[in-house]
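subagent[fold] <- orchestrator: predict structure for attached chain, return tokens only, no commentary.
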Amino acid sequence: CMKEDYSDCGLYLKFRYTNHPEQTDWFAEKIETVDLFIFNEEGIFQEQWNHSASQGNELHLNLEKGAYTVVAWGNLSDDFKYTSLQPGVTTFDKAILSLKRDEQNTVTIHPQPLYHAIARNLDIKKIGIQRSILDFSHNINHIEVNVEGLPINEARTPNRTATAPGTQFTILVTGNNGDYKFDNSHWEKASQLQYTPVYKQTGKNLTANFTLMRLSQNDGTRLIVQHTESNGTKRTIYDEELSILLHSNPQIDLDIYSEFQVNLKFDDLTYALISITVNGWESTVNDDGQGGVIG
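subagent[fold] -> orchestrator:
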């Protein structure tokens, strides 16, 4: 480095968020804080930096000569926790970020938006500047599930959590998508979670609003609708992998879209599914003859 303030060397990071349907830079609009985690070429944690988006979309890091991986989490909040990282000790594969849940692995919170970006193999030389762009991706999805045609109590019910009050129906999402490695891949030891929605009932329609962690193709996350029988047992009338359901709309890219509206229309006598609409796209239903869907 030639200058006393080291401005002519080290790493300059530029932040942006373009991985959404509009494909314009929404960094300033969507991301308030950035937590950066630095790992060396052996994958050992070195240090953590914090950046406020109010200070701009660039950050200069004065790192020693070497190769680094930089992980950025945008808008980290108390809704999440991550591994206690010890400089010089913790390895990249041991760093895990998790959505908070209760002892029964039920998610009762509706987490704030979370974003992720990563830059690998950044070669920092003794002299000169290394520049890298970190383009964030969303890690939170909002899904509105509207159920029509079932014999729902017509009394208006205010928004609330837990099972749908005043009805015999439950809408839930299950999945092991609450724990991630720092490269944003699913942790193979992740627990199976059950997400609790916020219900809203108007007339004969029942709506369940879910806030879910990141979704990916064939990740095992499922949308389930159940009916409570007269003897108290629950009968599943709909059960489908969520990624398959959402991809019934061919325009959906789970890495780009984070807002979904799913409409399920049932026959009020047989509880057979009649139609599915995802973000305005209606798809064909294959009834299995028992009121469920093959898939």
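orchestrator: received. Logging for downstream: The longest strand covers residues 115-124. The longest helix spans residues 242-246.
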